[in-house]
Structures
1.
Amino acid sequence: MGSKLIAGATCLLFLLLSVSKAQGAIFGTKKFDVKKYGAKADGKTDDSQAINSAWQDACESKIASTVVIGKGKYMVGPVKFQGPCKNPITVKVQGNIKAPVDIDRFQLQDGWIVFKNINGLQVFGGGTFDGQGSIHWSKYNCVRTGRCKSLPSNIRFTSLSNSEIQEITSLNSKFYHMTVFNCNNITLENVVINAPETSLNTDGIHVGRSTEVKITGAKIKTGDECVSIGEGSQQVAIERVTCGPGHGISIGSLGRYHDEQPVVGVKVRNCRLTSTTNGIRIKTWPASPTGIASNLHFEDITMNNVSNPIHINQQYCPYNKCQAKIPSRVKIHSVSFKNIRGTSATKLAVKLICSKGVPCQNVSLGNINLKYNGSQDKTTSECVNVKPRILGKMVPPGCVTSV
């Protein structure tokens, strides 16, 4: 009798181990350490090929996989993490990854680190991506010279779905720090972006032609927009972002090119901006093709010594490279600014300059409290081609309207 019980228990244990092993094959994560593929992590050797090889094997894995870029300094040329992959995949970055200074290395790729065509990507680990862009900021003032395409973004997320990017840092990008393009259901959480105020054309996070994008807990210091929302962006949530220095949080610029897609459903809330050249802004080019920007909501925003805290600008024309006298044809409607408080670095704290061709519609201002930081003088407001609804407290009072 005892031997039968032992035999039965042994069979049961074997069965449980078999089930556990099978479940591990389904739900487990296989690790691909780039150091085992030859990465030196010495800050001198080019580790691009080792990282590419680890990625390729992980992408082909029959179970969920993790590419591990451990502690150390990695010199890395342009790298493309290309999908589709057979299973969900994670990239754990703990090291300090440095880009080449030589701009000629990027002629065949529009980003330094590119994640493309992947479903179920996770990137995390507290690591740093250093673009080493300082010598290029003045040399390639791309807006003025028209040479933007020659500069790479630090990290480019293209055609991703159901993905999460968490707790990584972008330093000193040559161009935009992080670009989200043609993505669906992607979250950027607790990312850090750091570059000096003198870093030209270095938007922190730029979103274009993407849906269901969430940016939360980001800490951004840069020389251009902290967050910029481009054409075709829909259902974008921006929360708990700290910005400064930088040019604020912007929708646009829109209307520069033909066939731009609508921007619909952007919500910016619970953010803090400090000593930025703009606060929250919507900007479109004059003489533009037709376009739409709608359901745009800004609320619970704190401004600290911010120039142009609330700004709609449908006459956006940097360096006078446009036909400024021809009205914008981008229609802005269903916009709200609510619970915006703090200090303005200029007397004109609220500036809504809409298009004479398609005036802004359904714009509201509610519980605005913006005081001038320079003296005891009161802040003022200006509204052109728009008649906003005033809800609750309003400092500066009212809105001087002109057409």
2.
Amino acid sequence: MAISFEIIHKDIAGRIGKLKVGERTIRTPALLPVVNPHLPLVTPREMQEMGVEALITNAYIFNRSTEFRERALAEGLHAVLDFDGVIMTDSGSFQLSVYGEVEVTNRDTLEFQQAIGSDIVVPLDIPTPPGTDRETARAELAVTMERIREGQALFPEAHLAGPVQGGIYTDLREEAGAAVQELGFTFCPIGAVVPLMESYRYKELVEVVLAAKRGLSPATCIHLFGAGHPSMFALAVAMGCDLFDSAAYALFAREGRYITTHGSLKVDELAELPCACRVCRTHTAEELKKSPDRERLLALHNLYVTLAEIARIRQAIQDGTLWELVDERCRSHPRLLAGYRELLKHAPELEVQDRASKRRFFYRGDESCFRTEVLRYHQMIPRITLGERVLISFDGRELPGFDTVLGFKPPFGPYPPELGETFPVGQSEIPEYDDAMVRSGCAGIRSLMAAHPESRFTVRCGAAWATVVREEVPGAEVYDEQV
């Protein structure tokens, strides 16, 4: 049976979905913990009991292992790992990215992954790191595409992933996405992005992922290779990523690092354990530091936190509050904030995928003015029917002599009374007016004026905002009596 992906709920470009792989199904967004059979701080069976529905392991390691190779061939991955969910295997591309070469061919790794019963098989794609020149990136992309086609030809019935490469070159990423889509793939990992995340280059990460998605179908399930820290999951989901694989829970534990949703802390510097997971509620900070089982306990905590963030994101998508979560998470680090602002620059393409109605709109600063809901409202404004003389009132009070009276709710702008209780105007919470939100609202007034050149507009704003309104809406009469 083929891989299929069903989208259940949407918010921004994020999706709650069902990824069906053969007879097994994964709820998305989902985390695939990385499992090294030689160093399991948390066993796959324990992961499954924690709610993990899929994991990823390295076929290259299994293939080179004197301990596990023959067992995997004889018993299959699910029996060796004691895991009933979906198992995805990396082809050896990780080793290729680290060491520059691997002692295996594309055909070898594809045949081995099939033989050990991998649920999702990955070709030996070429991970092009940042800093690679365009000519090399294009040549490596051509090799990757050749290997993907080879995989399809060799194993037409396999659950084959279609990796999207192209380095940091957005045109190559888009080209690669389109090429993979043309081959009919439903499941596409975006590769070679770990160096961007390790160096906190989230702005470029957003550019790369959105470029790849422009080439792919909106119905394609997207796996972001190597995205392991929960602080950036909300941003990645908002871009349209559905699956993440993480070794961070174990790697950080070995380094004595305690993961939170806003970063990681050195456990030796903690006086308290600010978490509600089972590990943190059954140990004090001092007990955790001194425990002979410290690495394993830290790995369990890190995995609990990571899985909880995935659940939090799924709930935010269901509620239509993903923007608020992205805003909250991305303010934990300046580079994440840069990624968030880059994402907002792509609001026009995100708006097409976003849902029309949501539970609420919380204004959280200047960035909120560029959200998809504001853009969509400004696109809708020209459809408002007007008379000859139009009053837009900041405080809702009327003046005599007008055919149409509209309210004003920044950052959206003017609205007729009939829309006062509908989304987004009626479900938006804003603080006292600030400069950014009023200027955004004035952009809505300009849209309305452009659509109705036959009408005359007066804005009742009071002295506090008269200067801003005159700057932003030069064609309107400004009534600046104090309101």
3.
Amino acid sequence: MYALGVFVMKVSSLTEIVLPSNYHTSGFLAFHQRDEMGISEIVQQNQIKKGIMWHDNPALLTITIEENRAKLQLDIDGDKSRYSHEALLDLVSHMLGLKQPVEKFETIYQDHPVIGELITRQKGLRIYQSATPFEALSWAIMGQQISLSAAISIRRRFIQAIGIQHSSELLCHPTYKQVIQCSEHDLRQCGFSVGKANALLSVSRLIDSGELELAIPEEEDAVNRLVDNLLAIKGIGMWTINYALLRGFNHLNGSLHGDVAVRRNLQYLLKQEDKVSAEQAETWLAHFSPWKALVGAHLWQQQSSSGY
């Protein structure tokens, strides 16, 4: 499905980012450790190695966290002319969730009668991000209405089938440019349903044509336009969009009211005998706009030992 080119140049850059003193390193690493086979990400102790595409070239991103510092290294196979120190810092700051103003959120809600204690106990919690919005949306499409283990298997087979390999032997998550070279049959062979295959192909073709842009929106109006554009694609609904916004766009105002863990933990906090319905959770979370997703993440994390 993808012909691996011959790369003759390699650039390695080393830099670091200072982290908040209460940064949840274990949660960040757990988010990237879902696939135990480690074909495109390897997490060991305090380090992650991840295969990514850097301006159409396979690259190995290494993030090592030590003493509240994230040390970054990028090894690019091929053309190094488009390497940018600022772009690397921006990418990793995004992945680490450092663009999220959680300190402001905590200041506002640390004394809240229902969630104040939870927020104080989990201070510093962030929503860790996929490397790109396209990766987050791809994962959300794969994960629709199936178990986590099944989604991980499909993702693994998808990455293996397209087969973009860095010289380290780690595979890189495909971009839309590789996906548009695939057929529905190719994706079906990876475990996609017909609907999911066509949804991912539609997204990739719309990006390629310029009709869809997966830029990270700064204003709520831009978020709403992106939501409308994605909803117009057959096979993509609000669950998929909300998850993609949560994990790829640093969007903290999506509602996680449909999540079972969020509702279960909200029931516990509200000291309610009856189960919390999705409708009740949605109404309750609405009071926390524009932080609904972050409140949901705190509820999600409350009984989780492996990140959310």
4.
Amino acid sequence: MPLQLFDTLSGQKRPFVPREAGKVGMYVCGMTVYDYCHIGHARVMVAFDVIVRWLAAIGYTVTYVRNITDIDDKIIDRAQQNGETIGELTTRFIAAMHEDADALGCLRPTLEPRATDYIDAMQALIGTLADKGFAYQGKDGDVYYAVDKFPDYGKLSKRKLSDLQAGARVATADDKRAPYDFVLWKAAKPDEPHWASTWGAGRPGWHIECSAMSGCCLGATFDIHGGGHDLQFPHHENEIAQSEGATGQTYANNWLHVGFVNVDGEKMSKSLNNFFTIRDVLARFHPETLRLFILASHYRSPVNFSDTALQEAHASLTRLYQALHNAEQLTTSTASLQASSSVNTFEAQFSRAMCDDFNTSEALGVLFSLAREVNKACQNHDSAQAAALANQLKTLAAPLNILQRAPQEFLQAAIGEAGLSEADIVQAIAERQAAKAAKDYARADQIRQDLHAQGIELADGKDGTTWRRI
């Protein structure tokens, strides 16, 4: 079935038509590497990871570009505060970013350009804009984009230039021609990194980075541009103005934006003390639990982050893994079985959801329906049907990159302050077995109850006793 995308610029859901048949070029705005990634970053990482995986699943070859901003005011300030070089700071947090993304099960981008490697390309782009009358240098040496020279400014965020002018405030010392003009090249300041240029020593503004790097990696026009909802204005708006002003061509054919993450109903903010890094969360919850929490909402909708929401996500994921575990317990066959008509129905439903603007929420609903069918087959001791359904459950979940672990591995995983160790649990089970063998059933029941109180649930089966954390 055809893939439909909601394009932020047009405000419409429409069929996806790549520039080149069978290939997709996608650019996603990445991280400014001066601190650990937070849960808002996690949502963007996971959302576009699933988009890449689904595009590949339906036959596209994807070039996925996600940039790294490794020179910026915040980076300079943080390095000075820490008493370290900018290179030391950015190298450390790039490694941390990769560790977090890997933990969340995200594929590495095809290309991961760093801003400092594209200074020449940025200067060339600024030069083109200056030649075409879109850029000018202020008296203090900064180079600005003349927004009023680009008639379509505001088309992505649906803002009018007249409204921006009316609402703007201009500092007395500001050397911009208009308050809404934005910087392309910053004149060098003492003790800050800088590069030689036509306009004097300096460094690039933030917005010019992505126009230059996307153009170098994907060309003047590419298929999909993505990022967080907060980047629509001014960052993405400014990218359009820069790129289309320079090339005269459409910058990106489709714009995808990931919704905000709120914390207990409020926007995440350090000042509100409700700011959580990915590492904070993964110290207390399984990485796949956080991934499922993110996938449980459509990527464009806002989500509310809370301990309760994560606990519910963990319980939901446990139900899915338990269904796979039940099927494993019923049969030891690993042979690929002929899919029944019901299995094919689930596949069609899942594909329909994912091709509808990557509707992971609806796709997960299909997986839960399928898991219920797995459990029914297990209850009916229909091992062939249970195996076929379980195999389909795991196969369909693959583009979401969930349910790919061995069920027992997930069900027994210890996260954070997990309580009993696996050795303790195994020893308690052995003591319970000994009590049962001695017909001391009261002692056996007490051990079960004690384990349950410490978050361990036992299940007795034909092959012995299994356990999972609850």
